[in-house]
Each structure stands twice: as structure tokens, then as C-alpha cells.
Amino acid sequence: MEYSNKLLLKGNEAVVYGALLAGCDCFFGYPITPASEIAQTAAEKFPLLGRTFLQAECETASINMVMGASAAGRRVMTASSGLGISLKQEGVSYIATMELPCVIIDVMRGGPGLGNIAPEQSDYNQITKGGGHGGYKVIVLAPGSAQEMCDFAGLAFDLADQYRSPVYLLTDGVVGQMLESVTLPAPRPRRESPEWALDFKVNPRTNYLTSIYMEPADLEKVNIHLNEKYARIEENEQRCEEYLADDAEFIISGFGICGRVIRTAAERLREEGIRAGVIRPLTLFPFPKKAFRKHAEHAKSFVSVELNNGQMIDDIRLAIECSRPVSLVNRMGGNLVTVDDVVRHVRKLAKGGN
Amino acid sequence: MSEVVKFGRPKGFFETFERRPGSIKKNMSYCPGCGHGVLHKLIAEAIADFGIQDKTTLISPVGCSVFAYFYFDCFGLQVPHGRSAAAATGLTRANPESIVIGYQGDGDLAAIGFNAFIQAANRGENYCVFFVNNAIYGMTGGQMAPTSLLGQKTTTSPYGRNALTEGYPLKVCEMVSQLEAPVYVERVALTSPANILKARKAVRKAIKISMEKKGFAFVEVLSGCPVNLKLKPADMDKFIEENMTKYFPLGVFKDVADEREPVKRATPVYDRAKVEETLYRAMPGGNEAHESLESPLFDRELRVKIGGFGGQGVLSLGLILAAMGKYRNLNVSWLPSYGPEMRGGTANCAVILNKGAIGSPIVDSNCDLLVVLNRPSLDKYLPELGENGVLMYDSSTIKDAPKVKPGQKAIAISAGDIAEEFGNLKCANAVMLGAIGAVLTKYYLTPADAAKFQETAEAAIAECFAGKDKIVAMNAEACKLGYTKMQNAQS
Ligand SMILES: Cc1ncc(C[n+]2csc(CCOP(=O)(O)OP(=O)(O)O)c2C)c(N)n1
Ligand code: SF4
Ligand SMILES: [Mg+2]
Fold first, then answer.
1. In Å, how far is B375's CA from the nearest CA of chain A?
2. Whether B87 and B188 share a structural domain
3. FRET label pair with B86: which of A292, B147, B343, B357, CA 20 to 30 Å apart?
4. In contact, B64 and B255? CB cutoff 8 Å
5. Mind listing the pLDDT tens digit for each residue in B418-427?
């Protein structure tokens, strides 16, 4: 039989395909809308390849299962949304301190509180600044399509290994629920257990993993080491997609579904003769500061389009050191920003309004 | 108790505690008379005697034994307070060949970690747990534990534990032995030499069960914390034997080790062909089967919206269109109504087809093809129809012809009635699909593309209802019927 690697997949399905093709061994999760298709697809596909799927009793458990499997030297992933992600944070802090690689997907929904199941992007601050207790950071990727959900899963595992760090895929309910054509990559061989892993097949039993350092001097050393790593990540891993940006007077920025809306908006604005361009961050930590700084040299004004109360806008302001005005187009509660909303806003800016 | 701790350092411990920071590398950090040290020795001796140190990971909890990994000459993992059972699950599932030992205090296991613990026990995870019940929170300075006895004074039960306010001490062995999965459950005490011998046997048995992969083994160990119970080490033993064992009787609560078969776990598959077979789509011709479209209609983005009642097949009609686009090498997006819009029983989806990259997948204006199967959707979405847009509506539910703007087309097809005649109302969406084909053929498609319509539709239907052969055949038939009916109506 011949096979085609072109599939129609929801973002939530594509990420599971991407993970399996990248050699993910284990998935531990707990159902929550709008991320449940990830667990459902994993439940279906992982066992077909002899890999481990387990529905945990809660998100706290699932993240600690992730810790165990990662410690064992395996590629491991979990997925949730907002409230479930909050529950995982204790574990993520330990994982980050022990420098264990893993991939976590947050398909954001309406918050705060129980909120609703409609798309939002309000976990931005929580996740891009670390998320749990203590001064750690995590690498945060921002897929905006089913194809990127698939591809970034593989990228996430590689970055997780390279930097020995948890890596998030931070996206929203729309990207998770939307179905698109996806070209699947080639399957990769199993990644060998790293030299720090508690895997007796390859490593001596002298290996151990811990995150407790009772001596302040020792714990400070750990923190310095982690922060040096975060500086390296900031230097080397900034990623973004620039579109019509080179001569843009107005730089519009957004990630996830907003990254799609602003692309169409910029095209429409160009048709009207307004020089609009797009920076779509693909990494949210590290934030693509270099690109923003570069375009601040010619852009008059920046616009942040977000499904929250205005969170990424602060990172844009920091990136360009407040050298240009940055305005916000946002919706909350599970409502979407439309192309028209963005076009109207930029049109007004172009006319000299605020 | 102090005299029985005298036997020499077992081989399962490190000679010097190199994992311990600072200058003290020879001594453990436990108080005199503490049960942890004794239990450590029993475990260390067992893993050395069984020759399993190379394969063993001991999980240190949060509690006085947080630094257990300093001492045991095997792999070590230190985990968050109460999460030992979840981490153990991750370890043993990821690597079923490794031997995993959980070690938890009563706060760690029976309070903050009880759910993780009981769930792992209930799943029959292949690992063993040593549960140090010292009736107190040792590490944090003598607060009440779930296992503190009634009347016991602690820093957080200064008037004595009261059943009315704090509940009863938690009987973990009694609870866990009620579950199906656990293989072995015993409660022992670290008091007299005879009791310690029993504890030694229990420890070895539990580890053996893990080695034989028979599942979940659990040993509760009544243990002393003379510091926080404010007792002399000698009185500590008395307290355990006279007070604790009354409420926490010693003995075997469950032992089905002889009846159990080893837990079998699958071996991960990485063989390239097998992975492709599982995740790719079986398709004669492979990727080559995807042929590009020639009709100029597709030189620009095509925006489709479909609306109707839930159950009318609105979402699957959109899916089929999206799949058809994929078969003709277009980029496609399909976005179902989702969130607030879902209410009220109406459903809609947006489909975009584009040779290039698709921007916003949302269709709320400039719609090229609007398909509506009920009146509310017509009223709601008609304003979104673009300049030269085509409206197709089900005239079996929408009786009066809708007014469209100049340049726009409104085309009726009684999809519901035709489907009912055909024998299944559920096929109204497939009838509509056929009708769309006839309209596209008449106005937009090149003859070559038009000739491929039915074939592509059938492939897409087969993809969307994969594995349901009857439904596939029925929908393909209904699609043909819709095509013919529309063609006849148009000529
Ligand atoms: C999330 C969290 N909450 C609270 C603590 C503080 N804490 C440390 S040890 C402990 C109790 C340990 O008691 P137990 O499990 O009985 O162990 P023991 O010290 O008695 O051996 C607590 C509450 C913590 N480390 N983490
Ligand atoms: S406080 Fe209690 S449990 Fe902790 S080391 Fe001392 S005696 Fe042992
Ligand atoms: Mg205790």
C-alpha cells in the first residue's frame, strides 16, 4: 500500500502526530476542553506504536508522571488548558530546576476562574514568565496553525533536550479546534537516553536528580546556572515570522489565532494604501525582541492584538524600550478579534488618531 | 530501639555520602531513635543482597527523609511533597525494566499525596512503597499528621486530636487492601528485634514483588519520632507498641503474590515503516494522488460558510469540502462554531481554500459560498455574503426565496426533501454537496476539474467517514443524486 503524509487534522490532533513522529514515548494527561482531543488522539495513537498513554487522576499527577518519565530518559508530553495548567505549575518548577526536558501544551480557554471553554490567550503572563514558584523560565513556542502544532511538537522536543528545559506550546482554542491540511514530517528514530537520565541501560547508578539545596550559596549557584541558560536561550532562540514588515509604518503583532487575523488585516490595509506589516512571534519566551527593535527603526506605531486583557503588549513595550507608541486591540471572555477590528484600529492610527 | 540500630552499615548505602553537600559525608541526618534510619538499613540491605542496585531508583519524598538519596547507592529522584506515586508511575511506565521504590511519610502519603497514592495503587503500578507512619509531621516541627492518634497533642492539635474536628487517624493498610490491584499489603513496626525481623521480611518481600513485576506492593511501617513526640527513645517503642498498634494493628492485610502474573507492558515501536503505516494515510498513489486544480476560480482564496441546525450534517459537509480541497493540493482550513456560538442548537463552520497561505480562518465577511440549511442561519449569515457570492439554500426548510444583492446568486435545492425520498434525511448534506458540484460545474470549473468532482467528493467522503463503509457508500450515492437533480434544474 502507498501512503500519503498529507492529512486533514485539527491542531489538537496534529500535535500528537508531530510528537509521535518526533519520538515521543509517553503521554500523561487529564481531559479538559478545548484540549481534550490531544488526550483522545494520544489515547488512540500511542498504544498502536507501543508507546505509553495514561489518563492521570489530575493535572498535578500528570505533570509528576511527566517528571518520572523524563527522569527515566524518555521523551514525554502532557497537555491541558488554563486551570489544568495552573495545577501543573508546582511540578513544572521542580522539572525546570532539575533541568528535565518535557513538552507541555496549553490550549488556552477563557479565564479567570472556571471561565469558559471558548478561546482566550490569558495564560500568556503566567507561562512566559515561568508559571510556578521560584525564578525559573520555560521555553514557550506559539503555534498558529495545525501544521505548526505538528512541526513545533518536534521542535519543542529538540529544544527541550538541547536546553534541558520544559518547553510549552502555548496556543488557543481556535488553533486547537481548527482543522487544516497538514504535511507530516518523516518519523524519527528513538532518542537515546541522555547521560543524566536514571536509565540503567546506559548510565551508572550514580545519577540522581534533585531540586533541594539547603545551603543558600548552593541554591544561588543553581539559580545563576539556570539564568545563564535563559540568557543563552534569549540570545539564540528568538523566532518570529515577519510579513510585509520591512517598510511598515504600522507593525501589528499577535500569536496563535491572532497571528492569522493580523496577516489578513495587514493585507487589507495594504490594499487601502496603509503600510501595515506583521511580526508574529513564534517564541514567546524568548520574546523576539531583536525583530521588534529592528522594525522600531522605521515603524511609527505598534499594535498588539490579543485575546486577553493586554499581556504581550508589555513585552513589546519592553522590547522597543517604549520608543514608539504601542496600542492594544483585544477581546476577552472567549470572543475573537476580527479582521475588521484590526483594520479599523490601524486605519484610525493612520489618520493620526489614537 | 537505640540498641537494634547497631548492625553495621549495609552494602546498599554509599561508603561516603558524596551526594551530601558540606563536610559531613559519613553520617545520616536523622535524630537518635528515629525510625527512618532503621528502615533505610533494611531497604539498603535488601537492594544489595538482591543485586539490583544498578536497576533501582529510590524516590525521596518531602519530609525528614527528603535526603534519602544521599545515602542509597542507587539512582535517586527527589520529588514534590506527596507526588511520589505519580513520579513512580512515570518512571515505571517509561522504563518497565527499572525497579522503583517509593518512600513516603504519613503527611506525604496520607495527606497531600493520598489521591496520587491510592490511584497508583488502584492501577497496580509495578513498584513498592514504604510508608513511614510516625503519627506526626517530623520535618516541619511536629504538626498533626493524618495518622496522629486521637488525643495526641501536636503543635497543630495542641488540645489533642479530636475526632469531631480532625477526624480519625487514617487507616491506610485497611483502605489500600480493599482495592483489587495491590498484590501485597502489610503493616509492621520498628520496635522489638522480633518486629524488626518481620519488617525486614516485609521489605524484602515487597521489593521481590517489584523485581518479579507483579505489581503494587505496600508496607506501612510504624516508626518512631521521639523528638516530636517528646519521648525518650525507650519510651518511643512503648508508645508504638501500646498506643499505635491498638489502632493500627500489625499484620498482613493482603497477599496475592503467588496468584499474580507479571505485569506486561508494550515495547515502543520506532520502525520507520510501521510508524508511517500507523500515522500516514493509506492511499493508492500516495501523495501523487493529490492533483492540482486548473480552474481560475481557485486563483484566489475561496471562503465558504455553512450553517444549519445541529444534526443536519453542517460540520461534516464542511469537512468534506475541506478534504476535497486537500485532495486538489489546496491549503484548507475548517473552523467549527465553537464556544458561545454553539448555543441555541445551530451549528456553523467556515471553510477556506487557498493555493497560498491562509490568513484568518474566520469567515465573517466576503463569503464566496454560503450554504444554509435552515432559516436562522440564512438570516444570520446572508449579510456576510460577498459581492459576487453564491448562496445555496435548502428550499425544503426555507420556503420563500431570499433576496440577494445584484451580482450575487441565490440557488435553491430541496436537499431535505430529496434526502427523505432517497431514504435518509441525514444525507441532506451530501445532496447539497452534489448540488454545489453541479453549480460549480455550470459556472466556474474547467471541464477537466468538473470531470473530477464526483471522484474527489467520493475520496473526501471516504476520508471523513473512514471505516464506516455503509455510510460512505450512502453519502456518495446521495451526492450523485444531488448533482443530477441540480443539473436537471439548471438546464
Ligand atoms: C507543597 C508543600 N506543602 C508543604 C510543605 C512543607 N512540608 C515539608 S515536610 C512536611 C510534612 C512531612 O511529614 P511526613 O510526610 O509525615 O514526613 P516525616 O517528616 O514525618 O517523615 C510538610 C508539610 C512542602 N514541602 N510542600
Ligand atoms: S524529626 Fe522525627 S522523623 Fe524527623 S529525623 Fe527526627 S526523629 Fe526522625
Ligand atoms: Mg510523618
1. 24
2. yes
3. B147
4. no
5. 999 999 999 9
